[in-house]
Amino acid sequence: MASCCNSMGLEGFFATFKSSKRSSDAASIHCCTHRFPLKKNSFSVSHSPFFTIKASYSSSSTTTIAEPGGIKINSVPTKPIEGQKTGTSGLRKKVKVFMQENYLSNWIQALFNSLPPEDYKNAVLVLGGDGRYFNREAAQIIIKIAAGNGVGKILVGREGIMSTPAVSAVIRKRKANGGFIMSASHNPGGPEYDWGIKFNYSSGQPAPESITDKIYGNSLSISEIKMGEIPDVDLSRLGVTKYGNFSVEVIDPVSDYLELMECVFDFQLIRSLLRSDFRFVFDAMHAVTGAYAKPIFVDKLGASLDSIANGVPLEDFGHGHPDPNLTYAKDLVNIMYSENGPDFGAASDGDGDRNMILGKNFFVTPSDSVAIIAANAQEAIPYFRSSPKGLARSMPTSGALDRVAEKLSLTFFEVPTGWKFFGNLMDAGKLSICGEESFGTGSDHIREKDGIWAVLAWLSIIAYRNKDKKPGEKLVSVSDVVKEHWATYGRNFFSRYDYEECESEGANKMIEYLRDLVSKSKEGEKYGNYVLKFADDFAYTDPVDGSVASKQGVRFVFTDGSRIIFRLSGTGSAGATIRIYIEQFEPDVSKHDMDAQVALKTLIGMFVILF
Questions:
Q1: Catalytic residue among 185, 219, 348, 569
Q2: Is 185 a catalytic residue?
Q3: Which residues contact 199 (CB under 8 A, 6 or more apart)?
Q4: Which of 90, 117, 285, 586 has the most Cβ atoms closer than 10 angstroms to its Cβ?
């Protein structure tokens, strides 16, 4: 469906966008058009991790401004650089942009200029990343600017490696004041591709918009960078290095996170499953979870070493695109859909916060995945033994989770896209399990979505369902669990269409057109066979602090629960990305095995009426 736009007669409308189109199979989130000409090296285990990279800050014309605690602090003159407004998940650009003189340094200094002094002066901050190209150099820059701004200690993962979920876990366990995450998440890595940076606060959650807005504001007026004059730190060796009152501790990136997982899940129960005739494969996609897969799945849970695919983190992800979906994790999909495929397959993304779950010849949509985890959490996962506090999903995610919340009498929240919106609810004790249709699933054990957590949650559910099975008995499978769930709650058919690297002007015109359409729409209007219940531009008022997030996506919701949603995404590194979501609920069990595209055909074809 690479030409899905043309097949729906939208050539004229979308011609203004000059976009790369990606469409989603309604049972998944497929990406039909490859945005990057990448080669997938599926099982590479060797690499040369060292590159010669031009420094991205200037040391010329510096002025010594202080020498507190034995550290010489230099003031490096700089000027504002355009384009440093953070998106949904931090600042993401092409590597070459970040390598421009002072580009990264400006953003880091603007961050310190935006924080209250008590949040970083003599404080402990965490630093980690997904291992992508430019992380090594960036880590040294961040450490030196932290020293220059009076930070007391940096906890950094060995080789600069630490998954996004692990950074959140370390912040929380070690009571750090916050942390830096060097990642462009699921975007490709390498000299020609993407890099990113974001800051998480003391609860382990991404910085709120009140802070990211200040960072952007300060990036427009920045005039100096405070740089500690210290040598590069050896990030390959565990231990503490001191420079006056400032210190850097290189830590094992796995141990704190693994300890947390052992508190959340029943590892003995999962071990009993993986040591039986149950066959398991995990694809780390040459990304950061490669550092976690062997210690967790092999050493702790007893899986065989050959169950880990692409388990060595590489700076360019093995020339792959570390996005765990049916397109970019195609090698895993082929294995799972082969004649004698394993019973369970999973993959995670560049920084380890996303996941994909597969059974034998069966794909679990992210929207179904979070709903099924929530429905089974209390009996299968010790952390939730006393019942989840509440459930939440991002607005575009299907309504499957809503039905679980209703049946279990749990508080439910619908929030804008962006994990930061779940954090306040968690901190207030209102939320336990949440998810997004973009392969993000998690809980309040940390304040980020968590790919390995989702895999362990699914293994826990399968292990619990099979705990009384005798050797040789047929095991309850992934597809059995999903179809039983559908029979109980109904099935939400779901599809997403992506239009990437659109011209921003055309993308904004499209959204404005839709907002105008919303303002004129009326309840009861007919769109083909569908009757409009309401149309709006989604806005969210945080029930904890009262903050308001507006213009979060244009929705057309129909009386039968069907939805069509349009929104601009903030996770790309260039241009604008338009996402279109289509959903339809089906309570009839006899129709649950339909191909999702067939089930949604009428609704997909109908949305052209909107134009």
A1: 185
A2: yes
A3: 90, 111, 178, 179, 180, 181, 206, 207, 211, 215
A4: 285
